[in-house]
Specification:
Layout (H helix, E strand, L loop, with lengths): L1 E5 L10 H8 L3 H12 L5 H10 L6 H8 L8 H10 L2 E10 H11 L3 E10 L2 E8 L6 H13 L6 E5 L5 H4 L4 E5 L3 H4 L4 E3 L6 H4 L5
Helix pairs in contact: 1-2, 2-3, 4-6
Length: about 210
């Protein structure tokens, strides 16, 4: 068995979920600026996430789900996941974004399981609070180590794919570290860099172990 862990936003999905949500409330520019700083490693991820989630206060849960169920997926995402699974990989998603998006995408893209965050809802409306499994800069690396232990998979049988600073922690525990259309801070820690928005490049390069 082998393991491939993908980031979701700007990796499997073409864009940032929270930016699409903020656009609904006319806060896209403010939220996008914070997102960019976080992905470049210029801002603590937990601080940036809680700050951005607060901008979503008042958004209706129904509208949240409508947006999350209509996100644009990255070219080649479904095909790449399907091929990796044929090659014996368990395919997992770690996302600093939200279960409303990753849980729905799982049924479309067919990865095995997702770990992400949850936006708090009261009476059908977002409160601006957020919690979950991927709240901190270290969360992805911590979860990857635990997953490797459960599955009996080591670093040499692990590939990770991401684009931003909060993916660095999982890069430490994988042999193949793919920076996909990534920020410079992540490229520095990768051993594979893909600049084209086409996830099948992972397969073309024969990076699979």
């Amino acid at each position: 068995m082998k393991l491939c862990v993908f980031d979701f936003d700007s990796t499997l999905m073409d864009g940032e979920t929270i930016d699409f949500l903020a656009e609904e409330l006319n806060f896209k520019e403010k939220v996008s600026d914070i997102t960019e700083k976080a992905m470049q490693g210029k801002m603590d991820f937990y601080e940036s996430l809680t700050m951005r989630a607060n901008f979503l206060k008042g958004l209706q849960e129904k509208r949240l789900n409508e947006i999350c169920h209509n996100l644009p997926y990255m070219p080649g995402a479904k095909e790449t996941i399907g091929e990796l699974k044929k090659r014996g990989y368990k395919v997992v998603v770690f996302s600093g974004g939200f279960r409303n998006a990753t849980g729905f995408a799982k049924e479309i893209l067919k990865y095995d399981v997702d770990f992400s965050n949850t936006l708090h809802v009261r009476d059908g409306t977002l409160t601006g609070k957020v919690g979950g499994e991927m709240m901190f800069d270290f969360s992805k690396g911590d979860m990857l180590q635990r997953l490797q232990t459960i599955l009996g998979i080591d670093k040499n049988s692990t590939m990770v794919v991401g684009d931003g600073a909060n993916d660095r922690s999982m890069f430490k525990f994988a042999k193949t570290k793919v920076a996909f259309c990534a920020k410079e801070i992540l490229k520095k820690e990768a051993n594979v860099v893909i600049e084209k928005k086409d996830l099948t490049k992972i397969l073309e390069e024969e990076l699979c172990m």
